[in-house]
Design goal:
The complex is a heterodimer of chains A (386) and B (465). By secondary structure, chain A is of the alpha+beta class. Chain A has eleven helices and 20 strands. Classes of the chains: A alpha+beta (386), B alpha/beta (465).
Chain lengths: 386, 465
Amino acid sequence: MKILNSDPASKTADVIVIGGGIHGCSAALHLIKRGVSVTVLEKDYVGCHASGVNAGGVRRLGREYVEVPLAQASYEYWRDIKSLVDDDCGYRVSRYLKVARSDEDMAKARQRVNDLNARGFTHEDVVDQETLRAYLPAIAPHCVGALHVDGDGSALPFQTTQAFKRRGEKLGVNFREETPVIDIKRHASNWHVETHKGTFEALTVINAAGAWGGVLAAKLGDDVPLQAHAPMLAITARMPAFATNAVIGALSGALSFKQFENGTVLIGGGVRGRALPDSNRTVLDMKGMSQFLSTACDVFPIMKRANIMRTWAGIEGYTPDNLPVISSGRAEGIVHAFGFSAHGFQLAPGVGEFVADLATGVAPRLSLDAFNVSRFQQIDRASSYI
Amino acid sequence: MSIDIIIIGAGPAGMSAAITATESGAKVLLLDDQPTPGGQIYRAIEAAGDKQATILGPEYMAGKPLAQNMRSTNIEYVADASVWQVTDEREVGYSSNGQARLVTAPAIILATGAMERPFPIKGWTLPGVMMAGAAQTMLKTSGLAAEGAIFAGCGPLLYLVAHQYLQAGVKIAAIVDTTAKANRLKALPHIPGALRRWDLLSKGQKWQSEIRKSGTRIINNVRALKVLGDTKAEGLSVNAGGTWQNIPSDHIFLHQGVVPNVNLSFAASLDHDWDEQQLCWRPKTDQWCGTSIDGVYVAGDGGGIGGGLAARASGEIAALGSLAKLGLIDTAARDSKAKTARTTLRRELSIRPFLDTWFRPSDDFRVPTDDDAIICRCEELSLKDIRDTIEIGLVGPNQLKSFCRAGMGPCQGRFCGLTVQELIAKQTNRPAADVGYYRLRPPIKPLRLEELANLQIEEDENIKF
């Protein structure tokens, strides 16, 4: 540790992680376990934004094909999450179903399973109407089947993110909350990260700044046309148990649906409110929300009588192709891990391992080519900003 | 025809704002969640007759001409309308008759009134325990009163309801006064300021002497309270002057003052200040009741506790402010019309420093000390549960909420928000203002999912004048 100025807060570590979301915390934990010293700089508090307020889906089902290996690698960590972070993270294993409401939906599901099998993945299958009803007797009669995976489930996002933080902290990660980055510059072989609480210095910087990652990447010479959006969620008052044994989506019409053990039902569906990343605020769009709420009523008629208690949205960064950036940067000593486009929660335990690889010069055991930051260099920025 | 001003709440502030606005030709939509106008202070006023006049007094009956006046004007008044959202773009989401709607207007006046401060003692969640305001509601709407109840706590409303009970000929088991002795000395310097409403002070004196004359037991200098009973209230255990005594009763009415009902103003992202004198949050307002969002106004007790007459005056001021903003009156007319209301408002607020100091609820009754006292009623979290969560390092109300679900139930923090905030402040040794409050989100009241799924955007022709 080296003190750069008179403020005792400014210390040097091997690696500085910018962003205390679940990806920043996971990368920090993997690094400290390898004996690498880490400081995490978080502008608000750990898990304050998308990482702490998302739907908590621990899902391999329905992912882009290039993402499936990452999701599988993370799944292995999730299965034994307690040994990684010393907390059960509220992780519940059940089944994940994307419901088909038409024959076209069923055809889509079958095609996907064929494609996956051809790529060597066998975790997803198609279930018929009878099986679907056996799992979920409350499902509407016009639901004819589902794309299905056994072993997916859900976790509590804030508890999980905090668990990654606490485990890292216990092993020696230095967390600095309420410490926004003002500037970042390279001096000789080190990066100097300037904050109100002092200047932090390290050989390597990991950009895990979520919705704010694009601005940081641009400062570091990497072009990522990231957009901030506010994916919305709603939760109901407690209801009788009718769907506590599965997490449910829809093959057509966006829906994310889960009943907790306490009876409350969490509903999302990709519809976004307004994100105001500069002021940390989100503005909800009730007209938009009515779309996925009506899908929920269509799939589960019992939901018509549910009472909504609360709605909210986190601030999340979306890339043009909805795939994350997991990549070394153009500048030396820079690693990016952001832009998970609202499906990064499940990926965090595994991606942390690969980000730690990139930060320490180790070759990851999986190909990360699809997530390379350079893929956006060809994109015309003017047209990607709408 | 499009709406000029949407007013939320038909209590004294909302009704007087609606009347003032309509007089100058504004098209007003008045939304209220109750079946009849009046708010808490003038609740069920339209049905009140001679009997109510005797029991509830002239201050209550003063609401009758106000409600009549409101009814006689050309206001679109929607009763039983539950407002669940106000956005920074002045869009109001509300439900009535099983249908959710969105409607926008260039001006919105929030007149959502006050709510009772939580009183988190051991056993306060047992059946038979109520807030005194709820007891008064039963008296006003249904003529119901509980024989042999205990009134415990502090503040003018506690004595008002006790007085109304005695007027109705209903016996009271005891009045248990938690006002701290030390408050009196601190309130003395505020007496000169309070002299303009000396009539209120002497009325309070009169109620107290009536209560004494009635033979009702009064216990002063109370330091701690516990409700007795396992499945329902069976009495109150009272520590006065260091010794405990048990008073049996099936009905216990608690009260330690009222605070602005800020759920809607917080959910609308208005800027708020922590008021150290009234120990509550209040939206930041300017001299015309304007807030941090252009075109959104706050009138009445929802902007800071001042009482019914102050609410009427600030309702007028908010209406005049929005009328001028909409160009329906000029600023000269606005200023001259507001003179009487401003005089009233100054007079009514002059007594607040005295009342707020005298009746300041004691620390131990705001931040409980009994480990098993329930803090969050909806999620049944005790003081120990909350304290342990703070201990882990979750030192903001929102982190705490995410972790242990405090404030996530149907009351949306109304019963626990202030307690949790002050508890965190005490345990982490920070000022309450720095701790902040729950981040509130729409809907601010539970909303039937089907209503939102079938959301309608209000078309102009649906509004009739």
